[in-house]
C-alpha cells in the first residue's frame, strides 16, 4: 500500500507539537491501518528519546577559572570600586578618616598665621614674639604659630602653640608655661572641642524640646 | 535567572570582570554541552566553549540587554562550532581508517573520557553510538537537533539563535530527525 506523502509531514508536525486537530485525526486514522507508518512513527519517537537520553554532561573542572584567566585585563579603577563594595564597613571607616583628616589638615592650614595675645609692650618680629628686657607684661600670654622669647618678665601664664619659647637668663614668668606644639596634642585639643560642641548641640536640642 | 544574568551583565558593562564569572558559571554546562554534541570531542568542546565565553565577553557591549542572553550566547557557541567543523572537515573523516592501524578508524581516537562512573558499560556504549550518529549529521541539521533535543529550546528560540527563518528550522529538524531515525532504528 502506498501511503500518502503528507503522513510523514504530519508526523513531524506532531513531534513539533504544531499539528492541527484535523491533521492529527487524519494521522491517527492512517496509523491504525498502516503498519509501515506505525513503525516509522515509532522509530522517530524512539530516535528522539535516544537523543534526549544522552546524559547531560558537565563542563570540565576549572572551566570558569580558565575562562576568567583568558579575559583581557580590566581597568584598575574597577578593582578599587569593587573592593569598596565588598568592604562596606572599611569603606565607611576610611571615608570617615579621610574626611576627618581633611578637616584637620584644613583647619591646621588655616591656623598657620601668627597670633598673639594683645599686650601693648610685646614686640613682634617676623615669627617671633619678644618680651623686651626690663619690661613687665601683665596677664596671660598666648602665642600661636610663633616662638616666644622672654627677656623681660611676664606676670601670668604662658601658652605657646606650635612654637617654642626661649627664656633668657634675665627672663621670668610668674605663672605656668605650656607648650602645645605636637600635632597630636593639637588634635586632642580639637577633639575635646568638637566633643564639647556636640554635647552642647544635644543639650540645646533637649532644651528646645522642653520649650 | 535571566534577571540575575542581566544584572551581572550590567556590572560587566561597567567594567566589573568578576561579575562575569557568575555568568560563566550559570551557562558553562549548557555551552559545553552544545559544543560537545556538535563536535563530539571533549577537548575541542572545551576549547570552543571557552572561546565562546571569551567572545561574548569581548563583544558584550554589542549585546542588546532587552534580548535573552542565552540565545545570544548559544548563537556565538554554535557559530564557532560550525566554523570549527568546516575548518577541520578536509583534514579527516571519522570513518577513515587511521594510517598504519588495522581497522582502527577515527572513532576509536575520540576521547571517551566522559565521566559517567555510575553508568554501566552497555549504556555507555549506547551513549557513544548516539553521539556518533549526531556527529555524523551535516552541521546544519546537527545544530538544530542539538538545540532542540539537548538544550530543549523551542522552535522560535532556535530560529532566533541561529538567525534562520522558522520554516527553515522546521525543515532542518524534520530532515535531521529522519536522518537520525535511519541510523538509530536498529539500536
From TrEMBL, chain A:
<keyword id="KW-1133">Transmembrane helix</keyword>
<keyword id="KW-0472">Membrane</keyword>
<feature type="transmembrane region" description="Helical">
    <location>
        <begin position="89"/>
        <end position="108"/>
    </location>
</feature>
<dbReference type="Pfam" id="PF13490">
    <property type="entry name" value="zf-HC2"/>
</dbReference>
<keyword id="KW-0812">Transmembrane</keyword>
<dbReference type="InterPro" id="IPR027383">
    <property type="entry name" value="Znf_put"/>
</dbReference>
<protein>
    <recommendedName>
        <fullName>Anti-sigma-W factor RsiW</fullName>
    </recommendedName>
</protein>
<dbReference type="InterPro" id="IPR041916">
    <property type="entry name" value="Anti_sigma_zinc_sf"/>
</dbReference>
<comment type="similarity">
    <text>Belongs to the zinc-associated anti-sigma factor (ZAS) superfamily. Anti-sigma-W factor family.</text>
</comment>
<feature type="domain" description="Putative zinc-finger">
    <location>
        <begin position="10"/>
        <end position="38"/>
    </location>
</feature>
TrEMBL record, chain B:
<dbReference type="GO" id="GO:0006352">
    <property type="term" value="P:DNA-templated transcription initiation"/>
</dbReference>
<protein>
    <recommendedName>
        <fullName>RNA polymerase sigma factor</fullName>
    </recommendedName>
</protein>
<keyword id="KW-0805">Transcription regulation</keyword>
<dbReference type="InterPro" id="IPR013249">
    <property type="entry name" value="RNA_pol_sigma70_r4_t2"/>
</dbReference>
<dbReference type="InterPro" id="IPR013324">
    <property type="entry name" value="RNA_pol_sigma_r3/r4-like"/>
</dbReference>
<feature type="domain" description="RNA polymerase sigma factor 70 region 4 type 2">
    <location>
        <begin position="128"/>
        <end position="180"/>
    </location>
</feature>
<dbReference type="InterPro" id="IPR014284">
    <property type="entry name" value="RNA_pol_sigma-70_dom"/>
</dbReference>
<keyword id="KW-0238">DNA-binding</keyword>
<dbReference type="InterPro" id="IPR014294">
    <property type="entry name" value="RNA_pol_sigma-W_bacilli"/>
</dbReference>
<dbReference type="InterPro" id="IPR007627">
    <property type="entry name" value="RNA_pol_sigma70_r2"/>
</dbReference>
<dbReference type="InterPro" id="IPR036388">
    <property type="entry name" value="WH-like_DNA-bd_sf"/>
</dbReference>
<keyword id="KW-0731">Sigma factor</keyword>
<dbReference type="Pfam" id="PF04542">
    <property type="entry name" value="Sigma70_r2"/>
</dbReference>
<dbReference type="Pfam" id="PF08281">
    <property type="entry name" value="Sigma70_r4_2"/>
</dbReference>
<comment type="similarity">
    <text>Belongs to the sigma-70 factor family. ECF subfamily.</text>
</comment>
<dbReference type="InterPro" id="IPR000838">
    <property type="entry name" value="RNA_pol_sigma70_ECF_CS"/>
</dbReference>
<feature type="domain" description="RNA polymerase sigma-70 region 2">
    <location>
        <begin position="24"/>
        <end position="89"/>
    </location>
</feature>
<dbReference type="InterPro" id="IPR013325">
    <property type="entry name" value="RNA_pol_sigma_r2"/>
</dbReference>
<dbReference type="GO" id="GO:0006950">
    <property type="term" value="P:response to stress"/>
</dbReference>
<dbReference type="GO" id="GO:0003677">
    <property type="term" value="F:DNA binding"/>
</dbReference>
<keyword id="KW-0804">Transcription</keyword>
<dbReference type="GO" id="GO:0016987">
    <property type="term" value="F:sigma factor activity"/>
</dbReference>
